[in-house]
Design brief:
The complex is a heterodimer of chains A (294) and B (448).
Chain A (H helix, E strand, L loop, with lengths): L1 H28 L6 H9 L13 H10 L12 H11 L9 E5 L20 H6 L16 H5 L5 E3 L5 E3 L9 H5 L5 E5 L4 E3 L7 H7 L9 H5 L5 E4 L2 E4 L12 H4 L6 E7 L2 E5 L17
Antiparallel strand pairs in A: 1-4, 2-3, 5-8, 6-7, 8-9
Chain B lengths: L2 H4 L24 E2 L5 E5 L9 E2 L6 E2 L4 E4 L8 E2 L4 E10 L5 E9 L21 H10 L12 H5 L9 E6 L8 H8 L1 H15 L3 E7 L3 H7 L9 E6 L8 H9 L14 E5 H10 L8 E7 L7 E6 L4 H7 L7 E5 L6 E2 L13 E6 L16 H5 L6 H9 L3 H7 L10 H5 L6 H19 L1
Parallel strand pairs in B: 1-14, 9-10, 9-12, 10-11, 13-17
Antiparallel strand pairs in B: 2-8, 3-5, 4-7, 5-6, 7-8, 13-14, 15-16, 15-17
Helix pairs in contact in B: 2-5, 5-8, 11-14, 12-14
The chains are: A alpha+beta (294), B alpha/beta (448).
Chain lengths: 294, 448
């Protein structure tokens, strides 16, 4: 009886010792050196795992910063002070990183754009767009069922009284989630310094576009004429700004002034949100209530 | 073993028995509609690549002339549905929602609207299988049952497979729809000829026409036309939804199960809709193209329900005005009530795949609130392919579309809608699955 217990105990101790030796050898042979600073930098990051910096998450970003591939300021969720702390810890520069925010290429709220059919299914833009493209008259316009506001991890998007999403610039981290979720592909990420913007995606011809939405681009080409040569082009009945040339010119509000519908706008930051101002001749809707369906 | 088979009734397990509502129109002879003043022909009318327009603005076209040619093997040409002038080639609203490129034709009022006759004809008995597939493609024919899959692609059977039976689908299990029923009564000659051409093209020794047992007058009407050698037979199966799905019909009629994710040709079958083959029998020997189709306009929202022969591209509004619809109080569905889609505009054209316009009185349709799933398993008992709609629905609510596809066989779902129909909590399950499938497709496209 006793001998059985002793045998078992000795066997277990021996087995433990053998495995311990194997582990010790493996630890020496397979040791991977990791820069201890990665752990430290990772701790200083906000752990939002949003991917806005271009890496899959916070730890890969920490690795990239320690390696010097990315600048600390590429993290758009962290406060500037937080990023400065990381820069100071690593003894590197902050790097210049311009603030990028999500912008919506539609201004057709329920007070200016017609809804032709009432959609009564699941309250989601992605669901509505599968059912005959949603009820909106304009095939390209915002459906206003707030998929973008739902998907935003930073509460940076809210829906206004006309059913259009408003991006709070201070909170937007340019994580790209709203860009992906929008079934009409209306969001794009843009540096805040780019203030000239076409808030319309309708490819309908002028009259047809305006029948569906009062603030649609009618491709009248006035902005093309008023802007520096080559900056704005009409493509498929829509004014398109070539942002690659944007920095080459000193651009002011001139191109938007004569726009008859106010589809091309000038963006300013006001109270933390994007405020779009229209030109002098642009139609400024005073209607508060939604247009009737039909 | 299915209990029903013991009693001699051929059927499949699960499924549902919705009210039929076919009596309104199934005895009405198909009527030809007048030509709409303007015809909108979308270039993308089938699954596969859109056709390429070969006409220009202002050009005069004759009815039946090719106006857009096929862009590769996965595409079919489009023929002019009317004699008229090309108004423009531009984007136009489609039933799917977005605007798609389309050819808009102004109908010539002074024309006699005779079908353009090339003077040639196809002798299908003298043609090889490859030539036949090419000739089928030239007719512009797609599956008229609703899926609009190019017929010639189905008929091009890979060399390593052989087909033992052509299954002719005349079930028409969707409530309200009666176009296939009318075709089987009115175009029997064309249908039998079409079946012969299909058998020759896929090299099959026999063909079976499958109908639901609510259309037994078809049985007596077709029997005298069947050949004596027994190569073409007709059989009735139980009236049950979705009997007209090819997987269900193959199982009910022949006891053959088409594997998950597989094609009927893998088990030696080729399945075609009756209307498709009837058109094939009419078009291929005469070397013509598909320019019109039968469409059921029905529901309590129209005063003159019936089966109408309409040119492809006729605007929905024109059709509805002809059938005297009740106006704004109506709710419109393109297709049947189970698998059809509502549309937001009346100015969209009908396409090759549109089999019905269902107009329901809005005052009579009610929508109940969506309640939580109570795990009653009614959807599991209804699903004809044994999926778990309840679990899939919960995953869809959490937007876990990848899990639905990888672990719960979402892609086997053919969106028959049985789960939504039986759900006591009014959960729009099949709508969830449609969204999930659409988003998964988009994701796969992005991933390459």
């Amino acid at each position: 009886m006793i001998s059985t217990i002793v045998t078992a105990a000795v066997f277990m101790i021996a087995l433990g010792a053998v495995l311990a030796i194997i582990l010790a050898i493996a630890n020496k042979k397979l040791f991977v050196y990791e820069d201890p600073r990665i752990e430290e930098v990772d701790d200083m990051l906000p752990q939002a795992q949003c991917g806005a910096c271009g890496t899959p998450g916070c730890r890969p970003f920490a690795e990239a910063v320690v390696e010097g591939v990315k600048n600390p300021s590429a993290c758009t969720v962290n406060s500037p002070e937080g990023n400065a702390e990381i820069a100071a810890y690593l003894g590197v520069g902050m790097g210049d990183h311009e603030k990028v925010v999500a912008r919506l290429a539609c201004a057709g709220g329920t007070h200016v754009a017609y809804t032709r059919a009432k959609y009564e299914g699941i309250k989601s833009c992605q669901a509505a767009s599968v059912v005959s493209g949603g009820g909106k008259g304009c095939s390209w316009g915002c459906l206003g069922l707030a998929d973008c506001a739902d998907v935003c991890d930073f509460d940076a998007i809210y829906m206004d009284e006309h059913g259009l999403p408003i991006v709070i610039e201070d909170k937007c981290t340019a994580c790209n989630d709203c860009v992906v979720v929008c079934p009409k592909d209306l969001f794009s990420l843009m540096p805040v310094s780019q203030k000239l913007y076409v808030a319309c995606k309708s490819l309908d011809e002028g009259d047809t576009a305006q029948q569906e939405c009062e603030v649609a681009c009618t491709a009248c080409e006035k902005c093309v004429v008023d802007a520096p040569k080559g900056l704005i082009e009409i493509k498929n009945n829509l004014a398109v700004i070539d942002y690659e040339k944007y920095q080459d010119f000193d651009i002011d509000r001139t191109p938007i002034e004569r726009c008859p519908t106010g589809a091309i706008v000038w963006l300013d930051s006001k109270l933390g949100s994007t405020h779009a101002s229209k030109g002098k001749e642009g139609m400024k809707p005073h209607r508060g209530a939604a247009l009737p369906i039909g | 073993m299915n209990l029903l088979k013991l009693f001699g009734k051929k059927s499949f397990p699960h499924g549902i028995h919705p009210d039929e509502y076919k009596a309104e129109t199934n005895a009405k002879i198909t009527r030809r509609l007048p030509f709409a003043p303007e015809i909108i022909v979308p270039l993308a009318q089938s699954i596969g690549l859109p056709a390429k327009a070969i006409v220009f603005r202002g050009q005069h076209v004759a009815r039946g002339e090719v106006i857009a040619e096929a862009d590769g093997f996965m595409s079919v040409p489009i023929h002019a549905p009317v004699t008229g002038t090309i108004k423009e080639i531009d984007i136009a609203s489609t039933a799917k929602g977005g605007k798609q490129p389309a050819i808009i034709i102004t109908t010539s009022l002074s024309s006699g609207q005779r079908v353009h006759d090339s003077g040639e004809c196809n002798d299908f008995l003298q043609m090889s299988r490859e030539e036949l597939v090419k000739a089928v493609q030239n007719t512009g024919l797609v599956g008229l049952g609703g899926a609009a899959f190019p017929t010639h692609v189905k008929m091009a059977i890979p060399d390593n497979r052989s087909i033992h039976t052509v299954l002719v689908n005349g079930c028409e299990c969707e409530p309200f729809l009666t176009t296939d029923h009318r075709v089987m009564l009115e175009k029997i000659d064309n249908l039998i000829l079409g079946i012969r051409i299909a058998m020759r093209t896929v090299d099959a020794p026999k063909a079976v026409i499958g109908i639901e047992d609510n259309k037994l007058n078809v049985l007596t009407a077709i029997k005298p036309y069947l050949p004596d050698d027994g190569t073409i037979t007709i059989e009735a199966v139980e009236t049950k939804y979705p009997q007209g799905a090819e997987k269900m019909l193959a199982y009910s009629l022949l006891g053959i199960e088409i594997p998950s994710g597989g094609l009927p040709s893998e088990v030696g079958l080729a399945v075609f809709n009756v209307a498709t083959l009837a058109e094939l029998g009419a078009l291929l020997p005469a070397k013509q193209g598909l320019i019109e189709r039968i469409i059921t306009i029905t529901g309590d929202g129209v005063k003159k329900p019936g089966n109408y022969l309409a040119p492809i591209g006729t605007p929905v509004r024109f059709l509805l005005e002809f059938a005297e619809f009740i106006g704004d109080e109506a709710e419109l569905i393109l297709g049947g009530p189970m698998m059809g889609m509502p549309t937001r505009s009346l100015d969209v054209p009908i396409t090759k795949g549109t089999g019905a316009l269902l107009v329901l009185d809005k005052r009579a349709t009610k929508r109940d609130d969506i309640l939580p799933c109570i795990k009653c398993t009614q959807c599991l008992q209804a699903c004809p392919i044994n999926l778990n709609p309840s679990e899939l629905g919960l995953l869809a609510a959490k937007r876990q579309y990848d899990v639905m596809e990888e672990q719960y066989h979402l892609n086997d779902c053919f969106e028959c809608g049985c789960c939504s129909y039986v759900c006591p909590s009014n959960i729009p399950l099949v709508q969830y699955f449609r969204i999930a499938k659409t988003l998964n497709r988009e994701r796969h496209l992005q991933d390459g």
